[in-house]
UniProtKB/TrEMBL annotation:
Alphabetized UniProt keyword annotations: Nucleus, rRNA processing
Entry's Gene Ontology BP terms: rRNA processing
PANTHER family associated with the record: U3 SMALL NUCLEOLAR RNA-ASSOCIATED PROTEIN 11, U3 SMALL NUCLEOLAR RNA-ASSOCIATED PROTEIN 11-RELATED
Composition-biased stretches (Basic residues): 7-17
Organism: Ploceus nigricollis
Location of region: Disordered: 1-25
Gene: Utp11
Name of the featured protein: Probable U3 small nucleolar RNA-associated protein 11
InterPro entries: SSU_processome_Utp11
GO cellular component: small-subunit processome
Family: Belongs to the UTP11 family.
Length: 253
């Protein structure tokens, strides 16, 4: 084919134009191009194939099938959600473990233990109200002795001091010397309140010492888990104790 013939054929070609939209169909929108139809058809067939695959999978599913993810998932408002396991550690313990090391925790725990011992020595384990939680039993032989029983006479003290469980002098002691210490009811009530506050402080320190002991155990457990020795978890971690692992026995040189 000569160059002149190719030039003449090219001159006779007309540029391709999209088909015009009829005036009666302008309300229906623009005409769809051929490539747009192909894309829409490809997307439609792709979705149909996916639906057929899901239907086949549902028909082939074993009704007795079980896997552990079933018990950790649920449907909320039509959305499949996986349940997150509850954290068995308090936020305070997490914060303390991330910022402090086991030596610091152990040092603070020992300091709390010493303060607890000093408080116990000062309070002598007395009740804050001035009377023990237990009961003092007296044994007699007859019902008549029960009716005529006098606690003050039996304890050999004055009736005003019967309710005391400590510092209860006898009548002979009172005759030799005066009662030592405050005797004013208002002053005694103030001292009882102070003693109660001291017992509350002792209880708080005991709880703090226990919490620090648990934290130090959990940190030590995490340090032990860094070892490559084979281990099996025996008990899960709780808010009151660390997880328990059983390590494979390995003889060291």
């Amino acid at each position: 084919m000569s160059a002149a013939f190719r030039k003449a054929a090219k001159a006779r070609q007309r540029p391709h134009r999209e088909r015009a939209q009829p005036a009666a169909r302008t309300k229906l929108g623009l005409l769809e191009k051929k490539k747009d139809y192909r894309l829409r058809a490809h997307d439609y067939h792709k979705k149909q194939n996916a639906l057929r695959a899901l239907q086949k999978k549902a028909l082939d599913k074993n009704p007795d099938e079980f896997y552990f993810k079933m018990i950790r998932a649920e449907v909320k408002d039509g959305v499949h959600v996986i349940k997150q396991p509850k954290d068995e550690i308090t936020p305070e313990q997490v914060k303390l473990m991330r910022t402090q090391d086991i030596k610091y925790i152990e040092m603070k725990r020992v300091a709390e233990a010493k303060k607890i011992e000093r408080l116990k020595a000062e309070l002598h384990l007395l009740d804050a109200a001035g009377s023990g939680a237990g009961r003092h039993l007296f044994f007699v032989d007859t019902e008549r002795e029960v009716q005529e029983f006098d606690i003050a006479a039996h304890l050999d003290t004055v009736p005003e001091l019967v309710d005391r469980v400590y510092n209860r002098p006898t009548i002979a002691t009172l005759q030799r010397e005066a009662v030592k210490g405050p005797t004013d009811p208002a002053h005694l009530k103030k001292l009882a309140q102070q003693r109660k506050n001291q017992y509350d402080l002792l209880r708080q320190r005991i709880e703090r010492e226990k919490a620090m002991f648990v934290i130090s155990q959990k940190i030590q457990t995490r340090k032990d888990l860094l070892d490559k020795t084979h281990k099996v978890k025996v008990k899960k971690e709780t808010t009151t104790g660390p997880a328990i692992y059983k390590f494979k026995f390995q003889r060291k040189r």
